[in-house]
């Protein structure tokens, strides 16, 4: 088997298309090499090897060693050196590279091949002793941390002590001799921690590093990241080994990262940071504050350290040229890493850059305008789920701002919460339903869970490309990074800002758009849905076939959904309209009455309220379809629980509390979700359905008169499993319709349909369609009843199922295509066979889930219906599904 793919000197065995085999980094290094760009020669060990490694008890196949040795020779031949040969010293970097980029999740080792002997060769070759010993100590530090498991803090402590002792401020202030002493201390530390010396044999070092990369695929951080991003474990990671180039060879050397467009705003301008006389990890780790690439950006930022454009004009020009070529070649915004070794530019990475949702929209719309991509491609490029970020609030510009610090606007959106200083605390707060801002000096991959749990992230160190910034942008969380005037003290649990000391639990607001940190909670504004967002939505609307409706029952939700582009209401859950104080008493009276006369009396109180609710919804929806579902509560949701509640209802009904308590007990159900709910209520108590139908028809007449255009209500019967249930309820509805038409002297067009949310209904769909003019798939209940898993209790063990690989996705979040989906497909086909023009929709949570929406398109549903905030997501996902 071929496990190793070489690249270098303008040639490569792989290309960008080999991402699955070579990982993202390896495939793009090969591609850049073939494009003739300056890439240090190297080779990639395939992801297949990673799979084989784990399949065979963490061992390598026999033929790997020879392939690696040959590829190392090939690198040596290109650069005129040999690995492990002190006379012609070749040093390498070893990096991971999975198929999907996993920032900060995997590990990197630089300067590999150095030891007590070869460091002298490096000093001689480079003519720079200080550089050589700096490189060696970096190698010991990185290798010990990543491969040997000696915590990097040990080394940082030693270095801080040494610097303090000698009165140095910066790492670059240390001389060669001083680095040698630091190296001695480092090695002693390794020996002390491990009981064995730091490995001197370059081959041992190399295989140690390769093994560490493959092992890190299964470390806790990587597993968490994969889980959060739905990356399958089976993908594996590749390993990239490359000849070293040095950004730390003095003041004509540098290292940097850049985006071809601004990843936060999308602005079409080269954007990035670099550090003179440094190695790659320094930029990402936020150890020193980096400098701007362009003079323009430096002036805007008011930074005093010069830009790359100014100090390295030639390398800068070459870099600008390459960055533009790469963007055109990949037809997407690129995220680049580079090193300048003594004035010569080397490209270390290119990949499609992660970006905020806002930037993604702007870049897609701009690139379509530039003719680089089509409108269709622009629509396809936006991750529907990411639109959520844009729907986040921002700080009201007229709000008073009590600014206590300022950092970099690392990820947009504003967030308010209580200060916490650790990721575990953030998780605890989340568990208590409290909002937290995670405040850290800097974050590391160990903080992923806390960043997830927090509303927003604030760091006092690090740039726009620091871990906190990159990860927060990916998560769509507001983040302010590098707020250097703030002081975090973990020991005392305090944040000091402009003379004020805040502690854990104090409320702050961060503004990811301006980088400001504000004291207290601040008024927020709802997001702006115009500009690029509107363009993409408009293009999406031209492409999609399915309609998008919303699940809404309150006027506020209905209005919001319309502003997000909803084309009607797909589900109005009428039971939700009875929860406020005045209504719930009448509702309870109705439920608890044991004779029809009393029930009718209570229903009479509810009728006018329902009528005005519906009239308002019809007016807001102005002629768009509105589906109203008859009452479907498991009754326990409405039963009075406390003594106070029982007393209140008893008073209203004029019965004793004791009698009411008995009636409540009689109504108690062991399994209310499978109990007296849905159409079963209407069968037992048809007067309920009659009241609701009357309210709907009278409201339709009223709204029709008021708006001048007729309203065509769609009445939906829930939880039907037997055709005759629907027949029975429909007959009641038709009678009421006839009565209201006679009373009002108007004709009313209306539809009666049903939810398909029981397996029996799906199986009998061809018969049910004889009475139903539409089906709406209630995939929440359909999932619950198909799996026989309670939708209210499942999350605890479903998570275990996910961890054990029994299920890949929570079926209540993303439709189980193989099981529940098959029922949907079958029912849709059967329904159409009976009634070719039957209207088909979905109104379970899945109606707002992009993967499920793809399925709905495939099955040929007419519309999806989802909660208001998901409407833009559904519009986009429906377009992508139709394309
Ligand atoms: C469903 O079951 O999918 C549905 C939409 O109804 P509810 O969530 O109200 O049970
Ligand atoms: Mg349901």
Automatic annotation (TrEMBL):
One of its GO terms (molecular function) is pyruvate, phosphate dikinase activity. InterPro entries: ATP_grasp_subdomain_1 (IPR013815), HAMP_dom (IPR003660), PEP-util_enz_mobile_dom (IPR008279), PEP_util_AS (IPR018274), PEP_util_C (IPR000121), PEP_util_CS (IPR023151), Phosphohistidine_dom_sf (IPR036637), PPDK_AMP/ATP-bd (IPR002192). It catalyses: pyruvate + phosphate + ATP = phosphoenolpyruvate + AMP + diphosphate + H(+). Gene3D superfamilies: 1.20.80.30, ATP-grasp fold, A domain (3.30.1490.20), ATP-grasp fold, B domain (3.30.470.20), Phosphoenolpyruvate-binding domains (3.20.20.60), Phosphohistidine domain (3.50.30.10), Pyruvate Phosphate Dikinase, domain 2 (1.10.189.10). Keywords: ATP-binding, Kinase, Magnesium, Metal-binding, Nucleotide-binding, Pyruvate, Transferase. Its EC number is 2.7.9.1. Residues 642-665 form the HAMP domain. Its cofactor is Mg(2+). Catalyzes the reversible phosphorylation of pyruvate and phosphate. Belongs to the PEP-utilizing enzyme family. PANTHER family: PHOSPHOENOLPYRUVATE DIKINASE-RELATED, PYRUVATE, PHOSPHATE DIKINASE 1, CHLOROPLASTIC. This is Pyruvate, phosphate dikinase. It comes from Neoaquamicrobium sediminum.
């Amino acid at each position: 088997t071929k496990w190793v793919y070489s690249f270098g000197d303008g040639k490569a065995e792989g290309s960008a298309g080999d991402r699955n085999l070579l990982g993202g980094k390896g495939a793009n290094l090969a591609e850049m090499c073939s494009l003739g760009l300056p890439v240090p020669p190297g080779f990639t060990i395939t992801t297949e090897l990673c799979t084989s490694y784990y399949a065979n008890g963490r061992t390598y196949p026999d033929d790997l060693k020879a392939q690696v040795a040959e590829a190392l020779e090939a690198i040596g031949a290109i650069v005129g050196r040999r690995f492990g040969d002190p006379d012609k010293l070749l040093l390498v970097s070893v990096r991971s590279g999975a198929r999907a980029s996993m920032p900060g999740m995997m590990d990197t080792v630089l300067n590999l091949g150095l030891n007590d002997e070869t460091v002298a060769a490096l000093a001689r070759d480079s003519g720079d002793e200080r550089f050589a010993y700096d490189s060696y100590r970096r190698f010991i530090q990185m290798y010990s941390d990543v491969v040997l498991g000696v915590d990097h803090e040990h080394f940082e402590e030693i270095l801080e002590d040494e610097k303090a002792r000698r009165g140095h401020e910066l790492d670059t202030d240390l001389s060669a001799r001083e680095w040698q002493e630091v190296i001695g201390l480092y090695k002693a530390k390794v020996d002390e921690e491990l009981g064995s010396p730091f490995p001197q044999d370059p081959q041992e070092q190399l295989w140690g590093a390769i093994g560490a990369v493959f092992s890190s695929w299964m470390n806790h951080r990587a597993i968490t990241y994969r889980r959060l991003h739905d990356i399958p474990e089976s993908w594996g990671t590749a390993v990239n080994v490359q000849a070293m180039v040095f950004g730390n060879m003095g003041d004509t050397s540098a290292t940097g990262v850049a985006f071809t467009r601004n990843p936060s705003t999308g602005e079409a301008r080269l954007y990035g940071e670099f550090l003179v006389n440094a190695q790659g990890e320094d930029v990402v780790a936020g150890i020193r504050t980096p400098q701007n690439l362009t003079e323009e950006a430096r002036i805007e930022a008011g930074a005093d350290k010069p830009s790359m454009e100014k100090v390295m004009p030639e390398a800068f020009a070459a870099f600008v040229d390459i960055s533009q070529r790469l963007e055109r070649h990949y037809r997407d915004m690129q995220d680049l890493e580079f090193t300048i070794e003594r004035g010569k530019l080397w490209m270390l990475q290119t990949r499609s850059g992660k970006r905020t949702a806002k930037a993604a929209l702007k870049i897609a719309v701009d690139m379509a305008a530039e003719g680089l991509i089509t409108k269709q491609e622009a629509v396809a490029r936006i991750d529907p789920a990411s639109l959520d970020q844009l729907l986040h609030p921002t700080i009201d510009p007229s709000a008073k701002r009590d600014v206590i610090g300022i950092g970099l606007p690392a990820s947009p959106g504003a967030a308010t919460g209580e200060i916490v200083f650790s990721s575990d605390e953030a998780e605890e707060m989340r568990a208590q339903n409290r909002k937290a801002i995670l405040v850290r000096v800097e974050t590391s991959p160990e903080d992923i869970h806390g960043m997830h749990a927090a509303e927003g992230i604030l760091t006092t160190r690090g740039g726009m490309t620091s871990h906190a910034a990159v990860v927060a942008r990916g998560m769509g969380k507001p983040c302010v990074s590098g707020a250097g005037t703030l002081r975090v003290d973990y020991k005392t649990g305090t944040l000091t800002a402009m003379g004020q000391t805040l502690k854990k639990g104090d409320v702050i607001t961060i503004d990811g758009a301006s980088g400001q940190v504000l004291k207290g909670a601040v008024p927020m504004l709802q997001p702006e849905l115009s500009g690029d967002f509107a363009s993409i939505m408009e293009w999406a609307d031209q492409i999609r076939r399915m309609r998008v409706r919303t699940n809404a029952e309150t006027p506020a939700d209905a209005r919001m959904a319309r502003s997000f582009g909803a084309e009607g209401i797909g589900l109005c859950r009428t039971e939700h309209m009875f929860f406020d104080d005045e209504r719930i008493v009448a509702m309870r009276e109705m439920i608890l009455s044991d004779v029809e006369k009393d029930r009718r009396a209570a229903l009479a109180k509810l009728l006018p309220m329902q009528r005005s609710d519906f009239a308002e919804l019809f007016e807001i929806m102005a002629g768009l379809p509105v589906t109203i579902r008859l009452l479907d509560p498991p009754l326990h949701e409405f039963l009075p629980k406390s003594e106070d509640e029982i007393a209140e209802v008893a008073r209203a009904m004029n019965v004793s509390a004791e009698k009411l308590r008995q009636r409540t007990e009689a109504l108690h159900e062991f399994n209310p979700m499978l109990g007296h709910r849905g159409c079963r209520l209407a069968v037992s108590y048809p007067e309920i359905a009659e009241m609701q139908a009357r309210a709907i028809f009278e409201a339709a007449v009223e709204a029709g008169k008021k708006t001048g255009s007729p309203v065509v209500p769609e009445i939906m019967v829930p939880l039907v499993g037997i055709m005759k249930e629907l027949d029975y309820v429909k007959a009641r509805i038709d009678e009421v319709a006839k009565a209201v038409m006679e009373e009002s002297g108007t004709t009313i067009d209306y539809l009666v349909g049903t939810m398909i949310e029981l397996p029996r209904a799906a199986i009998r769909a061809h018969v049910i369609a004889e009475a139903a003019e539409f089906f709406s798939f209630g995939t929440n209940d359909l999932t619950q009843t198909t799996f026989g898993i309670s939708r209210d209790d499942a999350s605890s063990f479903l998570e275990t199922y996910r961890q054990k690989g029994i299920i890949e996705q929570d079926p209540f979040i993303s439709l189980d295509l193989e099981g529940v989906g098959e029922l949907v497909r079958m029912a849709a086909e059967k329904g159409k066979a009976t009634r070719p023009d039957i209207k088909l929709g979905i109104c379970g949570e899945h109606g707002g889930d992009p993967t499920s929406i793809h399925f709905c398109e495939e099955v040929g549903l007419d519309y999806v219906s989802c909660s208001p905030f998901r409407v833009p997501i559904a519009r986009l996902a429906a377009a992508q599904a139709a394309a």
